[in-house]
Write a structure and sequence with these properties.
Number of strands: 0
Number of helices: 5
Distance between the termini: 28 Å
Strand content: under 5%
Helix content: over 70%
């Protein structure tokens, strides 16, 4: 089966998001000091770190299940929208990494959107 350039690009985005969110989600779940400190700054308690980590890891799995890729990408996009807002209004210093990851998630959401009737 040969793949077109756009298909290869989508696969590359999926791999990149898997690596980024897999690492970030697992570090949140493992309680890496930086993640604990970040969620202390947010002030909602560490339960929010666990929920965010579980969403990230679970969404990464969904990215690889046919029919559930839109759900996985959508959850990650919502997570990155929240991350950008937290960085802009509470955490600083830069929302750019979250913004870039969010844009990559948006690409997958667009790619896996339902076809118009």
């Amino acid at each position: 089966m040969s793949r077109s350039l756009p298909d290869i690009a989508i696969l590359a985005v999926r791999v990149l998001l898997t690596l980024a969110f897999g690492a970030a989600g697992l570090s949140k779940l493992a309680g890496v000091d930086m993640m604990v400190g970040t969620f202390d700054q947010i002030g909602w308690g560490q339960w929010f770190r666990y929920v965010t980590g579980a969403i990230e890891v679970g969404s990464v799995v969904l990215l690889w299940i046919p029919g559930l890729q839109l759900l996985g990408a959508g959850l990650l996009l919502c997570t990155m929208i929240c991350a950008v807002l937290f960085h802009l209004f509470l955490l600083g210093p830069s929302a750019v990494p979250a913004l870039v990851l969010g844009l990559l998630c948006a690409i997958l959401v667009w790619r896996h959107r339902p076809a118009a009737a």
